Amino acid sequence: MVSSKNKVKGFTLVELLIVIVVIAILAAISIVAYNGIQQRSRDSAAKSAASQLSTKIEAWNSIKGSYPTDSQVSTDHLVDAKVTEAAIGAELQGKIITGTATPDNEKPVHYKQCNSGTGARITYVQGSGTEHIDRGTGC
Known about the structure:
By secondary structure, the protein is an alpha+beta fold.
């Protein structure tokens, strides 16, 4: 009796291609999910910064009787001995822009005083668009 022990062990080309296709599909799904998580994280950070700024300008308004000017928000950081709770820290200041610029992922929050200090608008990045918070009147 002659027995054949010359069987070659290994994977066929079709099996290898199936494994490669499955790995590629899983990688594509992971990349899309990761990008979505990053965008949600940026959106959350922008909304949080806008909320913090809103709290600061409301404190300023309650003591001073008007909302801060664009230049006070951008340069003075709302520093005033009478309104310490309105002071904007360096981290929050790094996320705020004023003037005609539009918010983006680098500076996700835009501040604009409205109607000679009776109101203010805070615009922030959300997804591919923007949302805003209005305070006071006139915006």
